[in-house]
Amino acid sequence: MIAFLEGTLVSGGTEAIVSVGGGVGLDVQLSALSAERLPAPGQIVHLWTHLAVREDNWSLYGFVEAEERAMFRLLISVSGVGPKVAMGMLSRASGRQIASYLRTGDEKALIKLPGIGKKSAARLVVELGQRVPEAGSPDLEGGADGGIPDGMGQALAVLGAMGLAPTQAEQALLRARHTDGEIDQDLERWVKAALQNL
Questions:
Q1: Above 90 in pLDDT, residue 14?
Q2: What does the chain look like in DSSP terms, one character per residue?
Q3: What is residue 136's predicted lDDT score, i.e. its pLDDT?
Q4: Is the dihedral of CA 15, 17, 12, 71 positive or negative?
Q5: Mean pLDDT of 175-179
Q6: Which of 60, 73, 94, 129 lies 20 to 30 Å from 31 when distance is taken between CA atoms?
Q7: What is the CATH number of domain 4-63?
């Protein structure tokens, strides 16, 4: 799994190209809102990423904030919502806005987002309404500085080595963090708490 990338922005937009050194340039798909926040070409950019692997295609999705990636991963966990639909939603509304729509059951607001009809909106509310963190919660924001605590990153690697899917492991860790705010640097505590939250 590619957790993040840092390199020189070659070209911006929703299909950005980032040079990561060694003569390698990565094609990264971004939401319109993230694309607007990219620096000028030639500048260094740091993006949180999600690698979507299909039999016929590998796509790398990038996010300026960990919060947006967390919402993207929640959205694609719902049947019928693929990466392209999730990115379309995040192009029109921020992760916080979508979280608010889900928590309050605002299906009308969800239907206004690209690719979402009445059935999809209802499914999103039913499946995610109770799973979305409260506004301002570090669970959705990825920490006060927009990053992931060291212990959490290490625990994510440990859980991955144990065979957990990246999305499943991350959600378990986010729930663990919500219930115990003092585990940031304690790897063993992270892993035990995450396993209890599966």
A1: yes
A2: ---EEEEEEEE-SSEEEEEEETTEEEEEE--HHHHTT---TTSEEEEEEEEEEETTEEEEEEESSHHHHHHHHHHHTSTT--HHHHHHHHHHS-HHHHHHHHHHT-HHHHHTSTT--HHHHHHHHHHHTTTSPPTT-HHHHTSTTSS--HHHHHHHHHHHHTT--HHHHHHHHHHHHHH-TT-TT-HHHHHHHHHHT-
A3: 44
A4: positive
A5: 73
A6: 129
A7: 2.40.50.140
Domain 148-196 has CATH 1.10.287: no
| Burial class of residue 179, CB neighbours in 10 A (0-12, 13-18, 19+) | exposed
User: Number of C-alpha atoms within 13 angstroms, CB side, residue 133?
Assistant: 25
User: Which letter, b or e, does each residue of 126-160 get, where b requires 16 or more Cβ atoms within 10 Å of its Cβ?
Assistant: ebbeeebbeeeebbbbbeeeebbbebbbebbebbe
Q: Regarding beta strands 24-29 and 44-54, do their DSSP bridges make them parallel or antiparallel, or are they unpaired?
A: unpaired
Tens digit of pLDDT for each residue in 62-109?
999 888 998 999 899 888 899 999 999 999 999 889 988 998 899 999
Judged by phi (left if over 0) then psi (alpha if -120 to 50, else beta), residue 186 lies in beta
Cα angle 168, 171, 174 (rounded to 5 degrees) comes to: 150
66-128 is classed CATH 1.10.150.20: yes
Would you state the structure tokens that stand for residue 102, as one six-digit string? 């889900």
